[in-house]
Design a protein that fits this description.
This protein has helices at 2-32, 76-86, 92-108, 113-123, 132-147, 153-164, 177-186, 216-229, 246-250, 262-271, 291-294, 298-307; strands spanning 62-65, 168-176, 191-195, 197-200, 203-208, 237-240, 254-258, 274-276. It is an alpha/beta fold.
Length: 313
């Protein structure tokens, strides 16, 4: 029992470290983000109407959105892997193996702890020695090629409702934080919490900071960001499709199951959480101001996707 308890404490420590690192990265990226400006073409000043004034900022409430199958159709890291395979970063057979890992995850509903640990030990062999700048540039290209048309319109509309109410909106995902930040920026969101890979002078070392941002690590990240940003978690909202995200959904005042898997659907019904399902389109056209505003991933897949080493073209 003592050995098992020790393993549990070690996993919790790594999850907490991952959460703290992700929150630090999210705050740093938000601070560094350029301020959006509206440029008028010559001669258009009198013809264009000024945009409506933004809502007063609601500084203590925010929304947190999972990415895979919540904000985006499919797994963001798989789309990223497809783009990397097209650029000969690894072979199509590697990509097929990655896809099989996702199939096993979706059929089984939970990833194997042994599988996650094994993949984690190999994960950063792929990025070690590569620059953050290189990965970000490739991520921008792949978002345009393979991700932009995968966004759930219904979920994006929910995020916009929070923004329109003056609330900040963050993505929370096991996807590498640099890729998560690209997705958030392209969607006009505040920022992202994601898995942090250590880098020195802009070059990846091949080590994670803590662990993958998954399961309990997401909850740690949300709490850590709330502490840094002065958020009242009781006034915050979280959205996810996965039973694995129950820890994150449980730390906020309002939880919403979006396109839920069987486990999360059952949990949502038991706890009285709102359920939104955009997969059939039945509710996608009927989005109104949800009660959440009035009130206030696959970790294994990520690890498996990053585990494939670059091979010679």
């Amino acid at each position: 029992m003592s050995w098992l308890a020790g393993r549990g404490k070690d996993r919790e420590r790594l999850a907490a470290l991952a959460g703290e690192a992700s929150a630090d990265a999210a705050v740093a990226m938000e601070s560094a983000a350029p301020v959006a400006t509206i440029e008028l073409e010559s001669g258009d000043d009198e013809e264009r109407q000024p945009p409506p004034p933004p809502a007063p900022p609601d500084l203590t409430a925010a929304a947190f959105f999972d990415v895979d199958n919540t904000m985006m159709i499919g797994a963001s890291i798989f789309h990223f892997a497809r783009g990397l395979a097209a650029r000969k970063y690894f072979t199509t057979s590697d990509l097929a193996g990655f896809a099989w890992q996702q199939v096993k995850f979706r059929v089984g509903g939970r990833e194997s702890k042994q599988g996650v640990q094994s993949s984690r030990e190999q994960a950063l062999s792929f990025v070690a020695g590569r620059t953050v700048e290189e990965m970000v540039a490739i991520g921008e290209e792949i978002y345009d090629e393979l991700m932009a048309d995968k966004i759930w319109a219904g979920t994006r509309a929910l995020a916009q409702l929070h923004l329109d109410a003056g609330q900040r909106v963050w993505l929370v995902t096991a996807t590498p934080v640099e890729l998560a930040a690209i997705i958030a920026r392209r969607l006009g969101l505040t920022g992202a919490l994601g898995t942090v890979a250590e880098n020195v002078d802009g070059v990846y070392t091949g080590r994670l900071v803590g662990d993958l941002l998954h399961g309990r690590a997401k909850a740690h990240a949300v709490r850590a960001l709330a502490a840094r940003e002065g958020l009242n978690l009781k006034r915050c909202t979280a959205y996810s499709d996965s039973q694995n995200d129950v820890p994150m959904l449980s730390v906020v005042g309002t939880a919403v199951a979006v396109n839920p898997d069987a486990g999360l659907r059952e949990t949502a019904r038991e706890r009285g959480w709102e359920i939104r399902d955009f997969r059939t389109g039945r509710k996608a056209a009927k989005i109104g101001v949800p009660s959440v505003l009035g009130a206030g991933a696959l970790a294994g897949a990520v690890a498996a996707g990053l585990a494939y080493r670059r091979r010679a073209a």
